[in-house]
């Protein structure tokens, strides 16, 4: 505005001087021409400003006279606001990416409890499809009575546990509802299926250990009380010796259970590796000696072992797995039955150790559970033959630590085949150096 007034004053001064030097008419003509020129220039400048207003993201016209003082701060402010908006958009995108990468599910709801957004994990947990479910009530999507009761309460101090079945798969979810913003809600979902299974396994394990140890302890305590309470002359040396033998048997049983538990603990906690080249034929020969001793010449053993076939592994663990399969075959094969032990290289280049028996066999419904700790198809027979119920669980862990597969084929009343198949990458020669 100051520049405009200065320009008008300048034209008026020039016109006044010309009026004095030449004549008044000339002065008025010059003043009129100056004012008209200023109006025309202002019109051009306003036209430039009008075009710029349609695209204010671009810099303003370089020179628009008195409008420069007005447009410059406006443009600086617009530019600062644009930079701030871009920064906010980047922050929002970053937050959305972080929310999408959360290991837990996240769902946002409006004041009517309608879905507005969810991350991929939440979509997987409860089957949300944002292309179809956006704007729909969460109660129409998560149809669990426990959740409806929980969500309609006034406070949500603790999460609610839901058991949801989707596509034939059971899933356990912890669902926490909370308020945020203005009349908005956030749902956080956490998959605790595995934690529930682990907790169930832990409880079963503790119960099974207690049960397995209670029986021999009860027997042992009973005999000790009998020997202690009865007068010495009333017990013959033969009876005393018989009691001692029974007590030793129960003590050995408890010792076997503890040893197997320690073996399992070691397998689960120690790091695994490729190990060293192991001549499995020697391990099988040692296991056969133990099996024949357990059999007491009541079974026929057929042996087909490749003595020159080595695998990379940990010798003590492999010995445990090999021995467990053999002793199980002896325990569950009737007198005069045949046990066939094989160790060979398959056509696919894998190494296979198998134990086939003509024993009592296993029902199909029991096979998937055989490697569970303390699971027995016939508890009475297993205890009678000295089994701890942990042998196949140990063998399964040995297989896993050696990248092998434990395969079980059986038919009730027709015998069984247990096999450990090692991948070709584990087959080595004695001179191989294994990292």
From TrEMBL:
<dbReference type="InterPro" id="IPR035965">
    <property type="entry name" value="PAS-like_dom_sf"/>
</dbReference>
<keyword id="KW-0808">Transferase</keyword>
<dbReference type="Pfam" id="PF00512">
    <property type="entry name" value="HisKA"/>
</dbReference>
<keyword id="KW-0067">ATP-binding</keyword>
<dbReference type="InterPro" id="IPR014310">
    <property type="entry name" value="Sig_transdc_His_kinase_PhoR"/>
</dbReference>
<dbReference type="InterPro" id="IPR021766">
    <property type="entry name" value="PhoR_N"/>
</dbReference>
<dbReference type="Pfam" id="PF02518">
    <property type="entry name" value="HATPase_c"/>
</dbReference>
<dbReference type="GO" id="GO:0000155">
    <property type="term" value="F:phosphorelay sensor kinase activity"/>
</dbReference>
<dbReference type="GO" id="GO:0016036">
    <property type="term" value="P:cellular response to phosphate starvation"/>
</dbReference>
<keyword id="KW-0812">Transmembrane</keyword>
<keyword id="KW-1003">Cell membrane</keyword>
<keyword id="KW-0472">Membrane</keyword>
<dbReference type="Pfam" id="PF11808">
    <property type="entry name" value="PhoR"/>
</dbReference>
<dbReference type="GO" id="GO:0004721">
    <property type="term" value="F:phosphoprotein phosphatase activity"/>
</dbReference>
<dbReference type="InterPro" id="IPR003594">
    <property type="entry name" value="HATPase_dom"/>
</dbReference>
<keyword id="KW-1133">Transmembrane helix</keyword>
<dbReference type="InterPro" id="IPR036890">
    <property type="entry name" value="HATPase_C_sf"/>
</dbReference>
<keyword id="KW-0902">Two-component regulatory system</keyword>
<feature type="domain" description="Histidine kinase">
    <location>
        <begin position="208"/>
        <end position="426"/>
    </location>
</feature>
<keyword id="KW-0418">Kinase</keyword>
<dbReference type="InterPro" id="IPR005467">
    <property type="entry name" value="His_kinase_dom"/>
</dbReference>
<dbReference type="InterPro" id="IPR004358">
    <property type="entry name" value="Sig_transdc_His_kin-like_C"/>
</dbReference>
<keyword id="KW-0597">Phosphoprotein</keyword>
<dbReference type="InterPro" id="IPR050351">
    <property type="entry name" value="BphY/WalK/GraS-like"/>
</dbReference>
<dbReference type="GO" id="GO:0005886">
    <property type="term" value="C:plasma membrane"/>
</dbReference>
<dbReference type="InterPro" id="IPR036097">
    <property type="entry name" value="HisK_dim/P_sf"/>
</dbReference>
<protein>
    <recommendedName>
        <fullName>histidine kinase</fullName>
        <ecNumber>2.7.13.3</ecNumber>
    </recommendedName>
</protein>
<keyword id="KW-0813">Transport</keyword>
<dbReference type="InterPro" id="IPR003661">
    <property type="entry name" value="HisK_dim/P_dom"/>
</dbReference>
<keyword id="KW-0547">Nucleotide-binding</keyword>
<dbReference type="GO" id="GO:0005524">
    <property type="term" value="F:ATP binding"/>
</dbReference>
């Amino acid at each position: 505005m100051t520049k405009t007034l200065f320009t008008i004053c300048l034209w008026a001064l020039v016109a006044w001087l010309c009026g004095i030097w030449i004549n008044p008419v000339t002065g008025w003509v010059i003043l009129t021409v100056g004012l008209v020129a200023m109006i025309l220039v202002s019109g051009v400048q306003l036209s430039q400003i009008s075009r710029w207003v349609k695209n204010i993201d671009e810099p303003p016209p370089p020179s628009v006279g008195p409008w420069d003082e007005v447009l410059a701060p406006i443009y600086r402010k617009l530019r600062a606001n644009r930079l701030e908006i871009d920064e906010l958009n980047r922050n929002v995108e970053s937050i959305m990416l972080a929310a999408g990468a959360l290991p837990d599910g996240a769902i946002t709801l409006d004041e009517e409890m309608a879905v507005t957004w969810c991350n991929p994990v939440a979509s997987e947990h409860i089957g949300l499809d944002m292309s179809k479910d956006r704007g729909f009530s969460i109660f129409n999507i998560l149809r669990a009575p426990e959740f409806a009761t929980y969500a309609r309460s006034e406070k949500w101090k603790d999460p609610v546990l839901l058991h949801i079945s989707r596509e034939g798969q059971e899933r356990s979810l912890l669902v926490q509802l909370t308020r945020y913003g203005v009349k908005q809600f956030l749902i956080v979902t956490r998959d605790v299926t595995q934690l529930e299974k682990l907790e169930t396994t832990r409880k079963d394990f503790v119960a099974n250990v207690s049960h397995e140890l209670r029986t021999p302890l009860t027997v042992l305590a009973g005999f000790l009380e009998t020997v202690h309470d009865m007068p010495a002359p009333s017990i013959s040396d033969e009876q005393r010796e018989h009691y001692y033998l029974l007590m030793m048997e129960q003590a050995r049983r408890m010792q076997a259970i503890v040893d197997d538990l320690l073996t399992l603990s070691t397998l689960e906690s120690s790091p695994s590796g490729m190990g060293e080249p192991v001549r499995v034929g020697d391990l099988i020969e040692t296991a056969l000696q133990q099996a024949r001793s357990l059999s007491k010449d009541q079974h026929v053993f057929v042996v087909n072992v490749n003595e020159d076939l080595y695998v990379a592994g940990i010798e003590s663990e492999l010995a445990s797995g090999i021995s467990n399969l053999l002793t199980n075959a002896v325990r569950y094969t009737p007198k005069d039955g045949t046990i066939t032990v094989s160790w060979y290289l398959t056509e696919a280049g894998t190494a296979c150790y198998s134990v086939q028996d003509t024993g009592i066999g296993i029902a199909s419904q029991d096979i998937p559970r055989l490697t569970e700790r303390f699971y027995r198809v016939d508890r009475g027979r297993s205890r009678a033959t000295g089994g701890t119920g942990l042998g196949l669980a140990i063998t399964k862990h040995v297989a896993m630590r050696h990248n092998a597969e434990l395969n079980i084929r059986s038919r009730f009343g027709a015998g069984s085949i247990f096999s450990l198949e090692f991948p070709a990458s584990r087959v080595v020669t004695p001179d191989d150096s294994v990292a």
